[in-house]
Amino acid sequence: MQTTTAVDLGNPDLYTTLDRHTRWREFAAEDAMVWSEPGSSPTGFWSVFSHRACAAVLGPSAPFTSEYGMMIGFDRDHPDNSGGQMMVVSEQDQHRKLRKLVGPLLSRAAARKLSDRVGAEVRGVLDRVLDGEVCDVAAAIGPRIPAAVVCEILGVPAADQDMLIDLTNHAFGGEDELFDGMTPRQAHTEILVYFDELISARRKQPGDDLVGTLVADDDLTTDDVLLNCDNVLIGGNETTRHAITGAVHAFATVPGLLDEIRAGSADIDTVVDEVLRWTSPAMHVLRVSTGEVTINGRDLPSGTPVVAWLPAANRDPAVFDEPDTFRAGRKPNRHIAFGHGLHHCLGSALARIELAVVLREVAERVSRVELVKEPTWLRAVVVQGYRELAVRFSGR
Ligand code: HEM
Fold first, then answer.
1. Alpha carbons 15 and 106: distance in angstroms, whole number
2. pLDDT class for 50, splitting at 50, 70, 90?
3. What family name appears in the similarity comment (predicted)?
4. What's the 308 CA to ligand 1 centre distance in angstroms?
5. C-beta of 337 in contact with ligand 1 (< 6 A)
6. Residue 230: pLDDT over 60
7. Is the distance from the beta carbon of residue 351 to the nearest atom of ligand 1 less than 6 Å?
8. What is the DSSP string of 89-102?
9. The Cα angle at residue 266 between residues 264 and 270, in degrees rounded to 5
10. 102 C-alpha to center of ligand 1: Å?
11. What is the model's pLDDT at position 172?
């Protein structure tokens, strides 16, 4: 157990190379606690890395809240405006109520019903990329599938889905390029304007999709409905696209994986968990202490921001043998890629189904995935994501 100081871990430049894993492994192995001075955040924040310490901060009885925000930059004096309204940054009654309302739409049963839709989307995408040309998986495959799924859940009419999928890809692509003259931020705003119209439509004509379900609850304002649609949009798109891209990366770099999945000798759910652990697309979650608390031997006063680095916990050598190695049969696999505690990802069943379908369909259609060059990584702290993954597929 050691306390280190000095680096601003909220600096996105630290995460564009694989050196990030070396740094995280060292911090996790010594169960370090690191203080980042004000810079990327106005007040500074503590960080934890080991599986044990991350689980302790996020655990259901830990004296921490998400209500001031769950990303670096927010704290008690600089709270997220959506706090107390949007599920991921609400607590107690509002959080319980929202999980109860939204949960059934993202449940395992709902996810199973969507698996045909996911399969059709994956096959459509593969039809376009199996042409022997170099394919950037991060742009052509990863984003398309989660965006289509989220449209279905929200209740976006079929005629608008292509437009919304394009907007979503642009809003969360992590790139500054313009699309239809829009920046990513403008594309996100455009989506919210579209949701506003969808909400008005559902008020006139009820439905059992997510927008219809939220609108039907008299306690929720239009603002609440909008924010929680946005929560599912962001939660469903920003992370899953990188896990899907990572699954293709695993096919390109893990010998025998394609054959094992095609032959049925690898258990698909176990492989999905390893993709989640290995890719860990949610890079950090932040909490603020609600009372005095001791973490890693250090007493923290109420109101202290603490960040849990999930990819570090998911490669903690105390919990995972050969943590950097992708092992298709890794069991047990107690990763916390979906977080831990009361805010554990509500879309985890959906994400798992999306990944399982991608793994199966690619194995079915493709005999080889060749890595054309090493991937590049997003300059980001919220997601650990691919900027570009260039591969060449050989069809079967
Ligand atoms: C929450 C990760 C896919 C919707 C979370 C959290 C994590 C996470 C770490 C917890 C945040 C916190 O503790 O503050 C992921 C990863 C995914 C994924 C790695 C894919 C690989 C999805 C999908 C959806 C979704 C597909 C919906 C379509 C949500 C929602 C929450 C959440 C609504 C808030 C839950 C709450 O606050 O109770 N996710 N997620 N996620 N996620 Fe996901």
1. 31
2. very high
3. Belongs to the cytochrome P450 family.
4. 15
5. yes
6. yes
7. yes
8. G--HHHHHHHHHHH
9. 130
10. 12
11. 73
- Give, using CA atoms, the residue closest to atom 12 of ligand 1: 343
Count CA within 13 A, CB hemisphere, residue 352.
Answer: 22
Give this complex's ipTM: 1.00
Contacts within 8 Å (CB) and 24+ apart, 26-31: 27/309, 27/312, 28/312, 28/313, 28/315, 28/316, 28/317, 28/318, 29/316, 29/317, 29/318, 30/1, 30/2, 31/1, 31/2, 31/296
Ligand 1 centroid to Cα of residue 337, in Å, is: 9
For 86, the 3-state DSSP assignment is coil
Among 345, 359, 381, 383, which is best to mutate for testing ligand 1, by the most ligand atoms less than 8 A from CB?
Answer: 345
**Residues 21-42 pLDDT 10s:** 999 999 999 999 999 999 999 9
Atom of ligand 1 nearest to the CA of 102: 33
pLDDT at 4 over 90: no
328 lines ligand 1 (CB under 6 A): no
Please give the share of the chain, as a percent, with pLDDT higher than 70.
96
**pLDDT tens by residue, 78-134:** 999 999 999 999 999 999 999 999 999 999 999 999 999 999 999 999 998 888 899
Ligand 1 atom index nearest CA of 66: 14
